[in-house]
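Standup, Tuesday
Yesterday: got the pipeline producing structure tokens again.
Today: sanity-check two examples.
Blockers: none.

Example 1:
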Amino acid sequence: MASMAAAFASTAPAAHGHRHGLRPHPPSLSLRTHFSPPSAGRRGGGSGLRVRSGLIEPDGGRLAQLVVEEPLRRARTRESLTLPRVKLSRIDLEWVHVLSEGWASPLRGFMRESEFLQTLHFNALRLADGAVVNMSVPIVLAVDDADRHMIGESSKVALFDANDNPTAILSNIEIYKHPKEERIARTWGTTAPGLPYVEEAITNAGNWLIGGDLEVLEPIKYEDGLDRFRLSPANLREEFTRRNADAVFAFQLRNPVHNGHALLMTDTRRRLLEMGYKNPILLLHPLGGFTKADDVPLSWRMKQHEKVLEDGVLDPETTVVSIFPSPMHYAGPTEVQWHAKARINAGANFYIVGRDPAGMGHPVEKRDLYDADHGKKVLSMAPGLERLNILPFKVAAYDKTQGKMAFFDPSRPQDFLFISGTKMRTLAKNKESPPDGFMCPGGWKVLVDYYDSLAPADNGKVPEAVPA
């Protein structure tokens, strides 16, 4: 992926991280906020945006980077071998990764009960100085009765990965009840069966939660060929500074990039330039943690994104490609706040929000789980996200008269074709081509190759997806 590596110019600083045998798996969009010309400034109830140099500060004023410094790692690792052990699931490890790099700043470990309750009930945390930062999804670690008994009166535990490698130490611990039903109801707005994250990480999890201060023994690595794309918030801030970015606009996705997405991203940059910014940089930030079974796996998505850059759909000089390590909840307006908040910590001051962000179909009924417009409305009002700018955009669709993706014109609806994700997947599975101009040819071929890899074998069994 040499061409895509050029999109962020250099990989993360060389470090021998902890190796884990786990691989993260795995819209017409709209943008929104208040703003006026750059000179107007922004304060109080007014609507203005001031162009200024420097990246937006992380929540809490500094990144909570929780990886143990190199000189102390051997001693901490030896200590971990003397402590009660808690085994991490794959999703637990992804949260350790998220916490270790500061995506959840100012959070410094798995949530204690006070933080958990604030997150569930307020979607925010109040800091010691009275400031409020957004936090909409619980970042918690579950343990069962046997774990709780084994921990006993210890104030520390060691966290071990699935291969029994020591990964982290959790100190000053607090163990409290895991109210699963309340957590599910408040995070997803439903307790209907079939929610992917719930079935993977909550239903069969322990009845207790353990919070505390986290020290991660080594940087988390997956050894899947994609670690060079996993830039931490600190790495990203260094790269944006190196490129002299005066604005950073983030675009999260968990799907292949089509030309409608590219239209939104390139038009966002054009608008930022018109507002007076000199060098706005795009953070193209695919989600790299847990995703549901029918989503395209991360390795294939990254290969598709590479082709998008190779074909010139996006400009590598103004695009930084990186993987966001968080697992996916599919919790709609609640989760999109987490996605936005994490990008503030990476240096983004603009966020592109799509139609039905972080949404999914209802697991039982034949309808969407969330109102398609609620995500962008919630982002405009969410506590602790006041510093983030969300830009308004029209819907993109395929314009049959121009043979390309364009912004939908309601005065001539007959000229537009909406190609849903379901339709796109069906075409790719059947090795059919979408209309010219919907997706770059190289990117489409990757998608067809992925679904071809899932074709039933001679014995009728569908193989598991192979890495790209």
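Example 2:
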Amino acid sequence: MLKRFMRRLNQKKKLSHIGLFLSFLFISCLTFGQQNAMINGDFPDPTVLYAEGKYYSIGTSSEWGPHFPIYTSEDLLSWKQTGFVFSSPPEWAQSAFWAPEYLYHNGIYYVYYSAKRKKDGVSCIGVATSRYPDRDFVDHGIVVDYGTESIDAFVVREGNELYMTWKAYGLDDRPIELIGSRLSADGFRLEGEPFSLLLDTAAVGIEGQSFLKKDGYYYMFYSAGNCCGVECDYHVQAVRSRALKGPYERIGTEVLLGENTDWKCMGHGTFVEGKDEKMYYLFHGYNKVGATYTGREGLLAELRWSPSGEPSFMFIPASSLNKEHNIQLDLSGDSKINPYWQWDFRYAKPEFSYIAQGLRLGGRIPSDNPTGIALTWRPNSVVYELGAVVNLINSSDAAQKGVVIYGDKDRSIGVGIIGNKIQFWSVKDGKKSQIKQEELPKALTTLELKLELSADLQCRAFYKRSSTWVEIVPEDRGLTRIGGISPWDRSPRPGIHFQGTEDESAVFHRVYLNNKP
């Protein structure tokens, strides 16, 4: 995906209630401000499954650990996170945790996923299994190792047999191809020779395939175009064939899903039958307001058919059932709190625990990480305030502790305390610099500080003196804009921050994230 992105960049330099809600939803979506998604925040490439009376969905986590967030819903409209597939990377995998895909087979829940292999950095497809759809997954290693890249798994049933399909040649100087192969009965290995399903003859990029059977046809829905970033043009197309192995012919319009009033670059989803016996497609798209700063969010559409078998989608806007994902956490002494923190697992090894005074954060920071450790959440608005109360008595004096907006280790901005000084700082191109520093009164026991991000991507830093907020005003406001902080495939994230040695730590009494429309 990255190579295609760069090439294109260079070239351009409760389900039954759904029926009752739809009229209201389509009217209410024509409002001002940033619209909510079905699954708010960065949640690309969602897979979806109905099991045990609920819907389950897993999304791409990329370079954030823990890996592959799991959400559940009663109705496809309102979702809640329940955990992750992996708390730590599988032994064989290095990075780029993309495109999970559910399969329920012989009483077992499978999650196929893509990741880069440690020994050579080649993307392969692995698999993990569990007796449950939302926990206790055990990894079984690599299933697909094909050429220079194997990503975007989807399993098709044909009679009593299983077939694995995937995207290949995304990094080669040749057309991308969607490939298939028979899968072993236990789902752990390929059998027989791979075969071609669809060739990207237009050289636009194709991926994220999913299949449905209808009226004697195999329908393959896939995403075409550039998936990610400001140059994205992702959209959904479909082909069909009487046989799984093809040949396939185009069916439906050129763009089945792509862009509407509030969303753009839609694609890479999977289907689930609703409780109302209708078919729904859960996929991702960029909000036109939040764009790369809120990432590719989880969206929903109903699949419809013409009498001649042509597919179309009816987009379903999120309703008021989806509240803003604001976070207000008192961290002192409550070990049952689970805000589902994520961090850049490649460049930080955080250690955190709950003590009577709050959350204690420390850990190991590699020498090539100028930012430090960030425990983050996914924002669902480009405009928000992020704050924390730091317990200074129980924190290491020489460590930096505060809040941060983290793109990656080389791109971040934050405000923090060292000794009796408060620092507004940034990391750009791998170099950390101080924007502004102010001296604090001595003998403080706690300090509340916050960052505010506005729609023009201007970041402002504050600390509280008595009951009054004091802004740390830089001499150059240009230093505090976060334009360009987004990595190519994921959104930057707000969170709490620590930078110090392994024997140092910071204690946070309270933390909050207020998303604003």
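Quick observation on example 2: The longest helix spans residues 16-28. The chain has two domains: 2-316, 327-516.
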